[in-house]
Amino acid sequence: xxxxxxxxxxxxxxxxxxxxxxxxxxxxxxxxxxxxxxxxxxxxxxxxxxxxxxxxxxxxxxxxxxxxxxxxxxxxxxxxxxxxxxxxxxxxxxxxxxxxxxxxxxxxxxxxxxxxxxxxx
Length: 121
Known about the structure:
- This protein has about 120 residues and is mainly α.
- Helix content is about 75%, strand content about 0%.
- The longest helix has 20 residues, at about 5-20.
């Protein structure tokens, strides 16, 4: 599998996880791991900063796929199948390219930055 296919698969898995996260039937313990996975994937802050040669990208190549695998394993089979179908439909309809899906994460980070500025200035 080449890199482009791998990135598409990760994108589809993240979308599937996000859809499953929103379902009320998903167990709470799975939602915790899924929330961490989605947050880590969308977060501009990495455990190891990207500017550190080699190590900077290792966390993206190792940690994110491991979190995705763990999240997928915790999602019940029926919910995973439903979510995967929805994710594939979104991918076919180009809904994954819509920037507004990232708005909640942007708002959270803006809130955190404002809070830090207000606290220390």
